[in-house]
Amino acid sequence: MIKFIKSANYVDDYYLDDRNQICFIGRSNAGKSSLINSLANNLIAKTSSTPGRTRLVNFFDFENFVLVDLPGFGYASGSKKSREDLEKIIYEYLLYAKKLVCICQLCSIDVITESDKEIFVNISNLAKRYNIKHFIILTKADKLKPSKINEHLKKVSNFFKFSLDNIIPISNKTNLNIKKLSGILKAVVTQNN
Ligand code: GDP
């Protein structure tokens, strides 16, 4: 059964077993918890009515892999110090995650910012160095007309200078590409087993 494992505050507390891990990174309110629930087809992650609240690293058992939900960064009204603390948690996880095979960076399709790009560049470097798969998941695709999505994907690809093949629009509302994403993640895990 797909289920929540634990929340951790510190590196010593991070969950590790022999399975590969996939992590989700995104700004607060990007739709990380909602996507975890869509993929699980169950309400295992708390969706936040107060963005930026959770500072914990959350681990979920997805049977053939462990999904890791990193704290949402870039919450505008947080202090600089609290933003830096959050980024520290994210990079600490990335550096200590021995079984990490894939990083999914979630961006809301209608709000992509310089802080997404900053994180993107850092993740890209890390992903190349450690041979980790890297995808951009564009959430809330239901906010665009279906006929506009392809055009928008090209713009996002240019903005990040990232291959279109690695950019996946999804919607938790309409279930657009949820099954496709689930298949992609399982395939990445299998390739790395
Ligand atoms: P998190 O902070 O990244 O975990 O984001 P949440 O999953 O809590 O979602 C933040 C807000 O975005 C909530 O109000 C959700 O209802 C909304 N949301 C999440 N996914 C979608 C989606 O696919 N489409 C739309 N239109 N809204 C969404």
Structure description:
The chain contains 5 helices and 7 strands. The longest helix is centred in the middle third of the chain and has 17 residues, at 80-96. Strand 3 and strand 4 (66-69) form a beta hairpin. It starts with a strand and ends with a helix. The protein has 193 residues and is an alpha/beta fold. Bound molecules: guanosine-5'-diphosphate. Guanosine-5'-diphosphate is lined by residues 26, 28-34, 47-48, 51, 72, 139-140, 142-143, 171-173.
Strand-helix topology:
Layout: E1 3-8, E2 21-26, H1 32-40, E3 57-61, E4 66-69, H2 80-96, E5 100-108, H3 114-130, E6 133-139, H4 146-160, E7 167-169, H5 178-192
Bound molecules: guanosine-5'-diphosphate.
State the order of secondary-structure elements, H for helix, E for strand.
EEHEEHEHEHEH
> Unreliable runs, pLDDT <50, ≥5 residues?
none
| Largest sheet strand order | 1-3-4-2-5-6-7
Largest sheet: 7 strands, mixed
- For the record, give the distance between the C-alpha atoms at the N and C termini, rounded to a whole number: 20 Å
**Strands, total number:** 7
Give the percentage of residues in beta strands. Answer: 15-25%
Shape assignment:
globular
Mean pLDDT: 90
Query: Structural class of the secondary structure composition?
Result: alpha/beta
Number of helices: 5
Q: Ligands bound here? A: guanosine-5'-diphosphate
What's the helical proportion of residues? 25-40%
